[in-house]
Every structure is written in structure tokens, then in C-alpha cells.
Amino acid sequence: MADNLIIAKNVEEAVALKDGSSLFLAGGTEVNRLDSPCCASTLISLGRMGLDGLSVCEETVDCCKGPKKGRFLKLGAMCTFQELIDCEDVPQFLKEACRFMSSRTKRNMATIGGNIGAARDDSYLIPTLIAASCAVELNCKGKKHVYGIGRYLKEKKDYPDSLIEAVLIPLNGAEVLSKRYANTAASHAAVTVSVSLLDGKVRVGAAVKNAGVRRLVEFEELINAGKGTEEELIKAAYGLDMPISDDMFGSEKYKRYILGVTVSDLVKKAQGGKK
What we know:
By secondary structure, the chain is an alpha+beta fold. It has helices at 11-17, 81-86, 92-99, 104-107, 112-118, 126-131, 149-155, 217-224, 230-238, 252-270, and strands at 4-7, 22-25, 42-45, 54-63, 66-76, 135-140, 143-148, 163-170, 175-181, 191-198, 201-208, 212-215.
């Protein structure tokens, strides 16, 4: 339980105040939940900084394979899930991911930046953002970085006090399909998978409970080489270098099987039923 709450007036103040004993407070759905691993003596509220706008921009993104320039829909990090669902300019695939959070009360509180910053292995949004080649705009001690979501997740630990200011959604016409597996709509997801299709190329993001959330390049290489049959993808899932284990959400075999079958199914749907 935090002892202090600081309401930051602007981004500069928030970033300057952040250290190892404090956490940023966005919607509060993560920090305030009973089983949250988040622990800090001080919370820095971001609610009065105006980080909830929406605009179209051109930006150069630092990705794992180098810089890439594009046109993006820029969403302020404090945009809530419900605001994204209600906004006509937000792509349908992102609205679908936001609806994975079944409680409207929570959707009115939870923010896109907070969900990414938490980087939970049952994230509602991150698999979709990976598949869609999205990016995050960071402020790290006053310096701006625009990283692809994959690079951000890999290097997140190197920027412990950075603040997500915005999320960038590519305006490239990619189709993104997602599937979430949970016992109930309100339960933690055992597996969440997202697949995108752009110019005939497939991109895959997945979150596996108690294993992690990342891009599945192994699956992409098989599919884009024309070898992505359901049987081949299931076999690839069992050979995937990911620390999947048995737990209350499902066995290791179940999770790996679901990964392979779901990627196969989503790719077929994205390709219009073609094998």
C-alpha cells in the first residue's frame, strides 16, 4: 500500500519524480487490484496531464531491425479502453481487444498506456499491438524515444523510470484478428493470440499465462514460407522456446496446442478461408 500520492502537473514533473520507490498511477486498475505485484511507497498520478488526445502523425519508429517511417494514429496513453471503443477513428481490431475486458466499469478506468506498462502475461492489448506493428512513445528523463512494441518489451527493463506518453497505431490497412481463451469473460486468459495480414505477410503476437507475451517469429517464418499447415503449426508450438508450464489455467500441452490451432485458424480467416 502506497503512503504518498503526488498529482503531477505535467510530463516533465512526473518523469523527474519517478524513481525506484514510486509508480505511475494511470487508471488504477492494476495498482489497486488485490493480487497486484505492484508495490511502491509513492504513486505519481498522471490524470491531469492531458495525455488522452488523438491525432494522426508521421513518425520514425526504432524497431528491432532498425528505423521505420510511417503514418500513425496517435493515441494518448491515458485514453481509456471505453474511450477507444466509443471513438469512430479507432480501428475495429483495437476495439475488439479492448472488449476483452468484460467489465464496463473497469474499461472506463483502464488506460492503454497502463495496460502496456504493466506488460502482464495475460494482457488484453499487447498481442494485438504486436500483430499490428504498433509503437510506443516514451519519455525517459526528458528524452523522447519512439520504439516498436517488440523492442519496447525486450528493452523495458532498461527504462524503469520511463513514461509512456502515447501509443502509435499504423495506418497501413493491415487486418488483425484475435482470440482469447479464458474460463469466463472476467477470468485471466490462459492464451491470447493475434494475427495480422499485410501485403500477404503474416505477423503473430501471443500472451501465455505464466510464460510471457511476445511476437512469435517462428510461426511467421513457417506461414510466410508456405509451410503453415495446422499440423506444422501445432508441431512448431510444441517446439517453441517459451517457458510454458502446467498451472491452474491449463496444462503446458493444452497451451501449446491452443497456440498452434488458433494461429492456423486466424491465418485462414485473414486469408479469406484459403489454406
